[in-house]
Every structure is written in C-alpha cells, then in structure tokens.
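Question:
Now give any protein.
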Amino acid sequence: MDMKTIIIGLILSSTIACAQDQNPKNLENTHEVIVSDLNIPWGFAFLPDNSMLITEKSGELIHFKNETKTNISGLPEIYVRGQGGLLDIILHPNYDKNGWIYFSYASSEGDDSGGNTTIARAQLKDNSLTNLQVLYKASPDTTKGQHFGSRLAFDDDGYLYFSVGERGNRDENPQDITRDGGKIYRLNDDGSIPKDNPFVNKTNAKTAIYSYGHRNPQGMTIHPDSRQIWTHEHGPKGGDEINIIKAGKNYGWPVISYGVNYIGTKFTDITEKEGMEQPIHYWDPSIAPSGMAFIKSDKYGDWDGNLLVGSLKFQYLDMCTLKDNKVIKEERLLDGLGRVRCVEQGPDGFIYVGIENLGIVKLIRK
C-alpha cells in the first residue's frame, strides 16, 4: 500500500468518526460574550469582586475587570510546547482570608531537557504575583508535547487535587506508582503530603498519588451532592472516560480501554479487568473532552444537576443528563462556536465557558 493510499484512508476514517457523533442539538440556549479576543483560555477563576483571572496557554495571566484586561506579572517561566503552557487556575476555598491562588503550568526546571506539569501557588498584589511557591513538580522533564493533564480542584476538607497526564509514555508511567504521570494527586494546601494518602507507606512510591492508570485528565470537579471528585480524560481513538475518583484505585490505562490506536490498530484486547475501575461513561468516537462543571443553579430550570463537558473535537458544550451516576442523555449546547476548553459556574449562578479563538461566554437558556 503506497503512502497516498494510507493518507486517504486516514482522512476518510477521521471523517467517518466525526460523522458518528449523533448527539442532538439543544436549541433552547444562546450566549453572551463576556470576555472577547482570547486565543486558548485554558482556565479561569472568579475573584470575590466577580472579576476574573484567566490563563492563556501561551503564558499570559489576565485580570479581567470592568471590561478591561490587565496582564499580571510575576509568573514563573512557562514551558510552552504542544499541549503544555499556562494551564488551570483556582482560588483557595478561604481566599478571602489568605489570598492564595493556585495554578498549573508546564515548567522546564530540572536537569532533563523539556518540561513537565507543575503546581504552584501565589498571591496577587498590584497586578503582580507575589510569594510564589512551587508545590509539586512532576518528573522527569520530557520534550514530548502531549498529555500534561493539569486540572485542579479543592474538596470540602481543603485538600488540593490535580491531574498529570502520562506525558506520552503510555507503557511505563500510568501503571507505575513510583513514577509521575497518568495520575490524580492529592496535597495539603501548603503542598505537604496528607498522612492518609493511599501510597504513603509504599516503598519508592510517589506519595502524592491519589489514583493511577489515567491517560490525560483535563476535566475535574466536585459533585454538588455526593461531594466526590469527578474527572474525565482523553482516550486515544475512542474511549474518552468519565470517572469518579477513589483513593488508591487503578483506572486501567492502558491495560483496559474502550479505544484503539489513532491508526485503528489495537493496543489491548480487553475493556475490563479485576482490580481496575470501570468508567461511569465513555465516548466513542472521542469528543476530546476539556473542562467540566455541574449545573447547581436556579438559572437553568430542569437542567439543574446536569453535567457539562467541553468538546474540543466537535466544538460544543456537551450537556449530560445523569441518573444514578450514569449518563442517560447527551445534548449539544453552544454548538459550533469553537473548541470548548473550560467551563465554570460563576458566583451569580450562570455558567461561563472558555472557547478557543473567541473568549469567555455566558450560557443563557432561552
């Protein structure tokens, strides 16, 4: 088979996969652009005065207030390569008292070439970050450009959770708890290791690890009722997953998966195995999920309680109706606006969505 035939086959298979996404369009929604002219708004957080801190993947931290964007100085050096750059951002639950801002980014600090996912905190003063503290740096650095993970969330007990993708090292990192990558981590808010983390007594383990066997989690949020940590992660071709994270559990990648290699070949023959968790939902074809939030608001009627997941691949906001922790219905919101990168519920109860090459929009139900 010549190269031209292979390329045509790959294009056709990609087109067919795209055509298989049959989620219906929900026409009961519109939007208002709140922050315009952003490139890749990877994450954003609301400050107490309802202004926003917005991360641009290229390495800019923007304060948006009174219709004005101000660049914040004092960031550490950002390693921008492939999917890496300046990534997620959240506030400490007691931000009003301590002023801590937490963010994830790719850093080249270390002896190896390349970069890896890093978690830091700082405080904001006069449009500059101060008191910068690096809390965790995944290792080793690598020049590979994929799978940095990087979503952040605090639980009700004040623990900080974050994800690090397997950095393109599928066959070593995810299943090895002595290595970083392909994991969900848990820290105290100061970066120390909680004494009851599941692997604190395991020889040579990375003791910040909370769960393992992940590919590239770019969505993380707290369920509004159960208060459990929910994540989603990119599969390969097919097999994007939603998971409920439990301490010490193995989520299977790449031993089990509902996906295949991008060229269509298999890397595993099994979708389940004893001792490995099943996703509560998976997508085939992949939607390339990024960003994740529950609707817990009186602004959207009977959408209250639904889960929202951004789709990079198909360029819509996927609204998932849930029953008993299962997705029973999916609908397209904000269809065709662009690659949906992040989603948050604001303090006013409205949903705000970061869309690449557009900005941040407010979701409005007609």
